[in-house]
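tool=predict chain=A
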Amino acid sequence: MTVLDHRHHTAVPGWMPGATAPRTDPAPLLPDAAPVRVLGTPALEKQDPALLRELYRRLVVGRRYNQQATTLTKQGRLAVYPASTGQEACQVAAALALGERDWLFPSYRDTLAVVSRGVDPLEALTLLRGNAHTGYDPRATRTAPLCTPLATQAPHAVGLAHAARLGGEPVVALAMLGDGGTSEGDFHEALNFAAVLQAPVVFLVQNNGYAISVPLSAQSAAPTLAHKAVGYGMPGRLVDGNDAPAVHGVLAEAVERARTGGGPTLVEALTYRVEAHTNADDATRYRTEPEVAAWREHDPILLMERSLRGLGVLDDALVREAADEAEALAARMRAEFHAEPELDPMSLFTHVFAEPTQQLREQAAQLSAELAAEAEVQQ
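tool=predict ok
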């Protein structure tokens, strides 16, 4: 037996449930030949009408949330806002696919997923307002802080899910990333650890075509990002990211697979960022209006409304109800963000380490002295 033969026939650690020899046939791990779709296909008739209506409602509310947050940024109420306009199907489906005790690990663009999970918009946007590292309690909401560095939340998701499994908790972690995040080392390390440990994790890559201005073609030569799963020994799934019931179905299946000991899954959702990367970005410098216009025709809300009306599960009353709820949310956001928050600069040091380091103590002392001097001058 050669070294390579030995490597591929070493048994999986015995503590893993249903431990077996590693799979050597890659075929079962390969992603779908074409993106999974539900809208506009016979599969739509098999969907739960209540689920379809709930997805539509969340899409409409989510679109208005994105619009209002963008407006607040232009008014100076937010320091920056990376809109998920056009990607709302991924956002709401991710939140809806998780159970109450599961964990969500969002990136900076995933505030809508956080709000869809039940976090108050004011708290979800605290980081982007520049007021604190995070505005909500991660443990209480089962939602990790918004992650600005690309893909660093992915290993955290693996660690939490593995620890929960060791503790006997049937918890699944879902890590949300963009296509740019797949070019980071943290992404690869997370997938490798997750597959080796068979950790109950789902990785959702929202492939919106660009890492800021860098197109996917300059990032990866793989047939799809979902194909990357095979090299780590986990299934890859490819789905139309603007088809809300399709995204929800694929994610729900992956979550259930993880929860029942099937291990991790990499899901690539093909979608598009309609707005600029952030309010500081000029997207016209690297993409054309015809490209954007083509994706606007594949808008997740338009796709849902057309399909659901055709199916007879959506009418004018439900459309108005969703629109009214969306406007109520926007009005509440305007009112809450109009008030200036009372901030404690010393809170910068509160949640960095359980036991502050010497450097943090020195920095805290320096800031405290500066604040005291400033207060003395103002007296």
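The CA atoms of residues 129 and 200 lie 33 Å apart. The chain has a mean pLDDT of 93.
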